[in-house]
Amino acid sequence: MVEKNILLDKYEIIKEQAEKDLPVWVETSKHDLPELFKNYMYPVNAWPIIISETTANELQTLSIKLPKLIQQIPKLYFNNDVKKIADYYFSGNEFIAQYAMISHEKKIDIGSRLDLMYTEDGFKVLEINIGSSIGGWQVQSFEKVIRKFHPYLSNQENSNYFHSEDSQKNYVKFLIDKTLQHVKSIENEVNIFINFGQDQHEEIDAKSLLFFNELLDVEFKKRGLTGMACSGKLSSLKLRNGNLYLGNTKIHSVILLVSDDEEVPVDVFRSFLMDATYFPDHVGVTMYGDKRNLGLLRTLAEKSKFSEEDNELILDSIPWTAEIKKRDIIYKKETFDLIDFLRNHKDLMVIKSARGYQGKDVFIGKYVTNEEWEEAIQIGLQETDFIAQEFSDSINFKAPNKNNEWTSHKLVWGSFGFGNMYGGVWVRMSEVESNLGVINSATGAVEAIVYELREEDFYII
């Protein structure tokens, strides 16, 4: 098994120059962080991940191209047939499917995050998350703290060589760009409604609004604009005289930062259709975020439905994926009964929900018993949205564990795409010794900042 170091070949010099007695995880209360992250719930590694410019370019290509290819699925796979789309994505509800397709036809750009493993065969895409609630951008707030820990990264001679793509600034720029593009009535004021979820504590809401307003203010000043982020109950948004309002404040974008059960008012959808608001979290996102799409992309690529370059990109980067149901499948040019195949190739496969999140409803054959695997198969057969996916195993990376010992870790990469703009990447890591297959912040993984080393020398992760 190939093993790399998270600091590339800069390990010795970065480690030698690092602050003495550097803790493994950032002690959030001791550093100059936004109030929102003073009690950040996940551990953030005090050591960065260093990647090459070549690797950053690979992530950029995947993060921009694949979400756009997903948006071609309704036409290329379903021929825009509302009934077929309803049966596949909406449990047969053609009314919702029609609304989804109306939203889809507006062809707006939406933020996305790819979750990837770096394997011995390069990057493999585990899932493509689409919409404003994708998460992962929070860790970028730790970048300045990480850089201060490591003089080699921050000294005047080297600082320009170590570049961390700022996912937060990139997203805010993208959000304002898209709002201005889709809402024609804007003059010099842009107001953005952000839904933080019904269960969010008021104090967290206030800190979140302060955080977003500070980011927005920087971008507004660059453009000579004014405006703000505001929040409240979605039901408070009302359509009046062709514009959407929160009280007396005209709203130009509605962002669902947290997905919960609060129903989106009809007025929001109407304002979106009238181009009075930019609303990237419309019902069509349900189609885009379904993990079964990975299998559909592979099917379309195998039939050469995209350009030659895109077909190759899909087949190289997306592992074999199939919806679980009683049927025959083709795996590496051989035909198998899917259920028999899963039982006979447990260690090669993963079973997971097509709509799952935070590592929930994921069964990795290599890490479960035969009995647990059979239970996963039965769940997949009973539910309508479970998939089987070829297991992608991360190569090992040397990184510090909680005891500050440099040991083997597995990494999951979260890479952002904002329309045609690459948004940056962050990492979640888990020590091999304790890893049970699922690497997710909510299940104990440690988060880390990523720097791209911009030198002429050629590196491979």
Protein described:
This protein has 461 residues and is of the alpha+beta class. The protein has helices spanning 11-17, 53-70, 73-76, 82-89, 94-104, 143-149, 151-154, 167-182, 202-223, 266-273, 285-288, 293-302, 308-317, 338-344, 370-382; strands spanning 3-5, 49-52, 111-119, 122-130, 162-163, 189-195, 226-230, 237-240, 243-246, 249-251, 253-256, 321-323, 328-331, 334-337, 349-353, 362-364, 386-390, 396-400, 406-418, 421-431, 446-453. Strands 1, 2, 3, 4, 5, 18, 19, 20 and 21 form a nine-stranded mixed β-sheet that branches. It is globular and about 65 Å long. Residues 457-461 have low confidence and may be disordered. This is Glutathionylspermidine synthase pre-ATP-grasp-like domain-containing protein.
Instruction: Name the overall outline.
Output: globular
Individual helix count: 15
Q: How many strands, which pairing sense, and closed or not: the largest β-sheet?
A: 9 strands, mixed
Beta-strand portion reads: 15-25%
Give the structural class: alpha+beta
Radius of gyration: 23 Å
Q: N-to-C terminal Cα separation, in Å?
A: 15 Å
Which parts are unreliable, with pLDDT below 50 for 5 consecutive residues or more?
457-461
Task: Look at the structure and give the mean pLDDT.
Answer: 91
What is the multimeric organization of the chains shown?
Answer: single chain
**Beta strand count:** 21
Can you give the helix content as a percent range?
A: 25-40%
Protein name: Glutathionylspermidine synthase pre-ATP-grasp-like domain-containing protein
